[in-house]
């Protein structure tokens, strides 16, 4: 729904924010190679994309994705970038959010609106 280069730019911006706040960043690509983003950046750890997300539950203070169902496993530690994907149509945004709410109506995913919101979340973790 969104150009890969655009998505990569959004992720790189957030990675820079996380690194500036002394977080260690990991990238776990989609298990299906067709959907993988090739984020070429320094100072991150690349994980095996075939490891099921369910095995990562207690390992991270924050998990960032766009529309992955795996975000539902992390409760309020999950951050969705759906609203940052400005190339996406309003109908696509609604469709993707409905995916989360139809799967888990009480989910507590953070749908951030901008990079400042991400920085606020990260700052709250550090407190």
Provide a short characterization of the protein structure.
With 127 residues, the protein is α/β, with parallel strands linked by helices. The chain has helices spanning 4-20, 90-103, 115-126, and strands at residues 25-27, 44-46, 63-65, 78-80, 110-111. The protein has three helices and five strands, in the order αββββαβα.
Helix and strand content put the structural class at alpha/beta
Ranges where pLDDT stays below 50 over 5 or more residues in a row are none
Tally of DSSP helical segments: 3
Order of helices and strands: HEEEEHEH
Distance between the termini: 36 Å
- Residues in helices, as a percent range: 25-40%
How big a fraction of the residues is strand? 5-15%
Radius of gyration over all CA atoms, rounded: 14 Å
The description of the largest β-sheet is: 3 strands, parallel
Sequence of strands across the biggest β-sheet: 3-4-5
Write down how many β-strands occur, each being a DSSP E stretch of 2 or more residues. 5
Mean pLDDT score, rounded? 90
Coarse morphology = globular
Total discrete domains: 1
